[in-house]
Design a protein that fits this description.
Helix content: 25-40%
Structural class: alpha+beta
Distance between the termini: 30 Å
Largest sheet: 6 strands, mixed
Shape: globular
């Protein structure tokens, strides 16, 4: 496997254009001119931003011309880039799942699951007035020994760290085991290929196959 960003982005662009967009119904239709930067190009730019570790869109768009300008000569301004990336969430998810399916670790039958808190607010007023009310809740984070109001991000990964499944859960409604079951049931794309085992990762990131309460077999 060639670890080259240009090769990866080119392959992803071809896959988006030829398979993912046509088969998933993400194509654009209706009156008006087509956008100068297509949805496939935008998805590739967003993936490149993550892989090159640019957390800020402003910094990324300033560096994009130098980093990947030979592949994408047409770039967007910050406000248009932010709006279109948010609207492109379903296609971005499809692209990220395609990347996960094409990594060597995805062939392994063992998956590790871990969870991390996503704080969304600190005041009682925020908890009552936020649009996340009902989705977010109060939970306890043992790693930081503190309570938080927000959601819990559940991740299913291969042993090499590739994320193959993910979901957000209210930390107040049910336990982590039940949250994982619901995530696998409600989102079939999160399910690893059968026969697979899903194991809760320890704090030191090693699996605990000996603990029956921490291991699920997926037929």
């Amino acid at each position: 496997m060639i670890a080259d960003l240009d090769t990866l982005l080119t392959a992803l662009y071809v896959e988006l254009t030829d398979r993912i967009i046509p088969s998933s119904g993400f194509g654009r239709s209706g009156p008006g001119r087509p956008p100068e930067v297509t949805d496939a190009e935008l998805a590739c730019l967003a993936v490149a931003q993550v892989l090159l570790r640019y957390d800020d869109e402003r910094h990324w768009l300033r560096a994009a011309a130098r980093q990947v300008g030979h592949l994408f000569p047409r770039l967007l301004g910050q406000s248009e880039y932010n709006d279109r990336v948010k609207a492109l969430a379903p296609l971005m998810e499809a692209a990220l799942r395609w990347l996960a399916d094409h990594t060597p670790g995805s062939a392994e039958m063992l998956r590790l699951m871990d969870a991390t808190p996503v704080p969304c607010g600190q005041s009682a007023v925020t908890a009552k007035r936020s649009d996340l009310y009902g989705w977010a809740g109060y939970g306890y984070c043992p790693s930081h020994s503190r309570w938080y109001w927000g959601a819990k991000l559940l991740l299913i990964c291969t042993c090499d760290g590739t994320v193959t499944g993910f979901g957000l859960a209210n930390p107040k409604l049910c336990g982590e085991r039940e949250q994982a079951r619901q995530m696998l049931k409600d989102q079939p794309a999160n399910r690893p290929a059968p026969p697979s085992s899903l194991t809760r990762a320890c704090p030191d990131r090693r699996p605990r196959p000996s603990s029956p309460a921490a291991t699920w077999a997926w037929p």
